[in-house]
Amino acid sequence: MPTYDYRCPANNRVVEVTHRMSETISTWGELCARAGIEPGDTPANTPVERLATGGNIISSNHLGSGCAPASSCPTGTCCAGGMCGLD
Question: How far is the C-alpha of 32 from the C-alpha of 51, rounded, in Å?
Fold first, then answer.
């Protein structure tokens, strides 16, 4: 099953989840339920955005890095796609 990265603009967290290509996750509550994590202080109805990762197939049990890629990382100069997470 493909994995997708979602970002919550309200708390700047990135969470990786698996779901069918035909499914859509649109809120922080849906994302937390799918990932099996607590929503914390972020309201469940807060919108989330799917990142353009293309959906990857993984076999890892570790889902989600917990932080968004740094905005100061120039895309493609330090790593593939600029997703190195440099601050």
Answer: 16
Q: How confident is the model at residue 64 (pLDDT cuts 50, 70, 90)?
A: low
Write down the pTM of the prediction.
Answer: 0.61
Strands 2-8 and 56-57: antiparallel
Instruction: Report the distance separating Cα 75 and Cα 55, nearest Å.
Output: 19
**What one-character DSSP code corresponds to residue 59?**
-
Task: Reduce the DSSP state of residue 34 to 3 states and report it.
Answer: helix
Q: In whole angstroms, how far apart are CA 43 and each of 30, 48, 51?
A: 11, 11, 20
Q: Which residue in the block uniquely carries the two structure tokens 């919108």? A: 47
Which runs of consecutive H residues, i.e. helices, occur in the chain?
28-35
Strands of 1-87, DSSP E: 2-8, 13-18, 49-50, 56-57
Handedness of CA 24, 13, 2, 56 (dihedral sign): positive
